[in-house]
Design brief:
Strand order of the largest sheet: 1-2
Shape: globular
Number of helices: 7
Structural class: mainly alpha
Helix content: 40-55%
Distance between the termini: 23 Å
Strand content: under 5%
């Protein structure tokens, strides 16, 4: 999860909007291949905004954070700005597919589509197993 949206980090730019931090450092240098999710309310934030974000529309904030490397947005529930960005050619559909594949990868690895229901007793037994406690 990216750092809180209102805190300057990369030359005054918030982490959720920083290509340097999310792509160059996290993905390229540190080889992170998981999902990058924003903190909650980063895009639709209604409180005071940082100076570098004040003039950006909601759609502009989505575009900037997607280009920075964000895959998923915490607590944002309106996908229409992202759909518009794709339809307008401002965000490539392949970028959205990449984010979706990162998100769905763990769902498939956990078998959530094949067997979405868990036996609570078995889950407790597995989590508390000696093998898992050693990890």
């Amino acid at each position: 999860m990216g750092y809180y949206s209102g805190t300057p980090f990369d030359n005054g730019l918030a982490v959720n909007y920083s290509r340097y931090i999310l792509t160059e450092v996290l993905r390229n240098k540190l080889k992170f291949d998981g999902v990058v999710c924003t903190d909650w309310g980063v895009i639709g934030r209604t409180g005071p905004l940082r100076e570098d974000l004040k003039n950006l529309s909601i759609k502009g904030r989505y575009k900037m954070s997607i280009e920075a490397g964000v895959d998923q947005f915490g607590s944002e529930s309106d996908p229409s700005p992202i759909i518009e960005l794709v339809k307008e050619g401002q965000v490539p559909e392949q970028r959205i597919n990449l984010a979706a594949s990162r998100i769905l990868k763990w769902h498939f690895q956990l078998g959530l589509f094949e067997n979405p229901y868990v036996d609570p007793a078995a889950a407790a037994r597995i989590v508390k197993s000696e093998k898992n406690q050693k990890r």
